Amino acid sequence: MAAFGLFPAMLATGLGSDVQRPLATVVVCGLASATALTLLLLPGLYYWLESRFEKSRFEKSRFKNRTPRNRTSPSPATRSPEASA
What we know:
The chain is an all-alpha fold. It is built from 3 helices and no strands. Helix 1 crosses helix 2.
């Protein structure tokens, strides 16, 4: 709302406007850029990072639960008798 209040001062050309115009421009543009960053960029950045971490977490769990190809579980006939006791 403050940006809308200072918008006429930013566009003013009358007497004394040479002092107020730069300050009004900085305030209006600063509020507009901060709003855009907060409402658009940060949620998008959060979504991108979250999906990236989820993907890496999925990859880690997939490789963690994987058994090597050349190893197989021992069959009951090859197990030692101590292991079954």
